[in-house]
Design brief:
globular; about 190 residues; 8 strands; alpha+beta
Length: about 190
């Protein structure tokens, strides 16, 4: 009887240890954002290699700052869904419409999928991000595709530091190409039922 009990308890521990899911629980995040329109315009006018060689990469102090809030939900161990709402005061050049307006409000919403290299079990997990977004600036509405890379750092039991850099590709004519860089903190809202 002891052997049977010992075997069953060992099997249960094995199943618990290796059957544990590391899917992200529903989380909220707050991000500090930098928008870079100048570097994207330089790359489109010349090339990436020319911008890097000539050191024309825009410095962070010359980028437009903003703030964002995100809802993040794990769809699987290696895939997260993120919905982000960003507000920034920017010098935004609406293509073919108006020149860069000084410090006007830009509102962007994006839904992205984050494909992680490693699960939330690990301290550091790089990821690729891709999605669809919409923007509003001075009565101009537009759509864009956010594509980029990120790094998730597990700070403590459901709290994460998120570093992200995206290239925002216009789908409509009223959106300008730009880089979107963010750093944020995310934390669990509640534990999902396993």
């Amino acid at each position: 009887m002891r052997k049977i009990t010992l075997t069953l308890s060992s099997l249960c521990l094995f199943v618990i240890a290796f059957g544990q899911s590391y899917k992200k629980d529903p989380s909220l995040a707050v991000h500090y954002v930098l928008n870079d329109f100048k570097t994207a315009a330089e790359i489109r006018a010349t090339s990436l290699s020319n911008v890097l060689r000539a050191d024309q990469w825009n410095k962070p102090k010359r980028m437009s700052a903003g703030i964002a809030a995100s809802y993040i939900q794990g769809l699987g161990e290696y895939l997260d869904f993120a919905a982000t709402l960003t507000g920034s005061f920017v010098d935004y050049p609406v293509p073919g419409k108006i020149p860069a307006a000084s410090d006007e409000f830009l509102l962007e919403a994006a839904a992205t999928a984050n494909l992680k290299l490693l699960s939330d079990k690990y301290c550091i997990s790089p990821y690729l991000t891709f999605g669809l977004g919409a923007s509003k600036f001075k009565g101009y509405y537009g759509a864009f595709i956010p594509a980029g890379v990120g790094l998730q750092i597990n700070i403590y039991n459901g709290a994460f530091l998120l570093l992200n850099s995206q290239y925002r590709i216009p789908v409509t004519e009223s959106v300008a190409y730009h880089f979107y860089h963010s750093i944020g903190i995310a934390g669990n809202i509640f534990k999902a039922k396993k």
